[in-house]
Design goal:
This protein is an alpha+beta fold. It is built from 5 helices and 5 strands; from the N terminus they run βααβββαβαα. Strand 2 and strand 3 form a beta hairpin.
Length: about 170
């Protein structure tokens, strides 16, 4: 056995620490970059209009409408969860709605997604909310299995309805 410590990395070397925290103003640019990665993954870049200037007031403006949690590894934001408060008329309680969760591919499988979901679940309980909900694309089998392993129920009878863009303008003009 050597009498001096080795300086070469070994399998026992610690993994860089992960910091989960609420997003702050300096995180807007990295969050937008991660949203772009998410849009590429979902093949939805044709819908992408987000910029730091557009997102900033909704996260940190006078009347914020969304919140974000980020995961940092070695000082770099590598994952985010963007969420907001919704309301259940049946429960007569607010709920927490997760709009997007994204972990960079190089950091997947290390528990970051699970940690972000758990943190948001805890936040929903602390706030006295009755639900924690989100949507998942029907083709994303990995995400569906992941969410089910976390205890989520994928609601087979519910479909999302949406009116956006020109259709929304036309609908509003009726």
């Amino acid at each position: 056995m050597p009498s001096h410590p080795t300086t070469e990395p070994t399998a026992l070397d610690p993994v860089p620490p992960v910091l989960l925290r609420p997003a702050v103003l300096r995180d807007v640019v990295p969050i937008v970059a991660l949203i772009r990665e998410l849009a590429e993954f979902e093949k939805l870049t044709h819908l992408l209009q987000v910029t730091p200037e557009k997102l900033r007031p909704h996260l940190f403006g006078e009347k914020p409408v969304v919140e974000a949690m980020v995961a940092e590894v070695a000082g770099e934001v590598v994952a985010f969860a963007l969420f907001f408060t919704n309301f259940s008329t049946f429960l007569a309680q607010p709920g927490l709605y997760l709009e997007d969760l994204y972990v960079q591919p190089a950091h997947r499988g290390k528990g970051l997604g699970e940690a972000l979901l758990a943190r948001l679940g805890k936040l929903a309980v602390e706030r006295g909310y009755g639900r924690f909900e989100w949507s998942v694309l029907d083709w994303n089998e990995n995400a569906i299995r992941f969410y089910e392993r976390m205890g989520a129920t994928v609601m087979p009878d519910w479909r999302i309805c949406r009116i956006a863009g020109d259709a929304l303008a036309g609908f509003a003009a009726r």
